[in-house]
Amino acid sequence: MTASVGKHVLIIVENLPVPFDRRVWQESNTLKAAGYDVTVVCPTGRGYDARRETIDGIDVYRYQLPMEGNGVLGYVVEYTWALAMQFWLAARVFFKKRFHVLHACNPPDNIFLVALPFKLFGVKFLFDHHDINPELYEAKFGRRDFFYKVMLFWERLTFWIADASIATNESYRNIAIQRGKMNPDRVTIVRSGPDLSRLKTVEPVAALKQGREYLVGYVGVMGQQEGIDLLLETVQYIVESKDRHDVHFALVGDGTELAELKRQAQEMRIADYVTFTGRVPDAELLEVLNTADVCVNPDRANEMNDKSTMNKIMEYMALGKPIVQFDLTEGRFSAREASLYADKNDPVDFGNKIIELLDDPDKRAEMGAYGKNRVVNELSWEYEVPKLLGAYEQLLNQKPSQHKT
After folding, report:
1. Which distant-in-sequence residues (6+ apart) come within 8 Å of 348 by Cβ?
2. What is the C-alpha to C-alpha distance for residues 197 and 121, in angstroms, rounded to an integer?
3. Taking residues 375-389, what's their average pLDDT?
4. The whole model's pTM is what?
5. Phi/psi-derived region of residue 69, left when phi > 0, alpha when psi is between -120 and 50, beta in every other case
6. Rounded to whole angstroms, what are the CA distances from 68 to 52, 112, 256, 392?
7. How far is CA 305 from CA 131, 138, 170, 300, 345, in A?
8. Close Cβ partners of 235 (under 8 Å, ≥ 6 residues apart)
9. Partners of 59 in the beta sheet?
10. Which whole number is the average pLDDT over 309-321?
């Protein structure tokens, strides 16, 4: 008899709603297909506003956040409200049908507070480590103050209380073991591999190039630590310093900095060369990526981004696109020869790397083919499925002690 028989999993995520959060939704469907009952608690938003629904046999309970955190006070309000709603909904689910695993997806690292009372009833606590929050705080606010220490404290308690943890890469696994003092046997790497059934090749849409010869594409969050300001400096360098008027940039995504970035593009007199699409349906996102000649990841070089695996990189690779990014540890691990690596936080070198690829179609084709082959044969979600299920099998059969002696 497998561990999944008769077992109910509650997944809590605060960062994004499901099914918009692709990693969480892939995990949910993988567990459901393996025989687990799966319930998800998450926020509303991104077009997913129903408070209660069942999707593909997975029960989803959503709560409304009073605001999207932006600044320390905003995050305090968001996290406090979210914790209260998560506990309330978890209790409703538990008394309706007991769950055996509480699977918490950060950020933030305080969901252990929801898990604690349920552990008294024998519920296992699995920590799904999506972001390293102390480094994320430092990247957002540029300081290591009292709240940074709170982030470290929450992280430490989360790992201490967790019966097992899954990490998105080797860097995160090392943090769980070294900083979190977890037993290495209880930490499993489950990468955020792309779902190849979603990333379809479609015909390029010439109109997206706005009458220019080349398109450079970006997909991701419009936030403080994503380096879009550096990308705008790159656009300015390409257009003004290199006198290249044959390149257009399409930036897909939403976030707290979108309005400010649009304003910056206007001030820099490059707005005509940049299209900010905002959040768009998958069909439009795929049109942009399939039309792009080069895709970029301008994530600023810092501790957070250096240790984090960015989903966009593997999505670019899945569609056979050559990449330019700054030279970061996990970005290089994912892309390898599918990317050129610019000097850290240098928009001029970033621009030169883009121009190098635009002017060399053979190199673009070679790099794109390498990246697609790597995803198809090594990095897609199908290769992570047995790792996730193995972590659950071990969790449900493990003995109590989970920390290093």
Report:
1. 234, 237, 241
2. 39
3. 97
4. 0.91
5. beta
6. 21, 21, 8, 32
7. 10, 11, 14, 7, 12
8. 249, 265, 268, 270, 273, 274, 351
9. 39, 54
10. 97
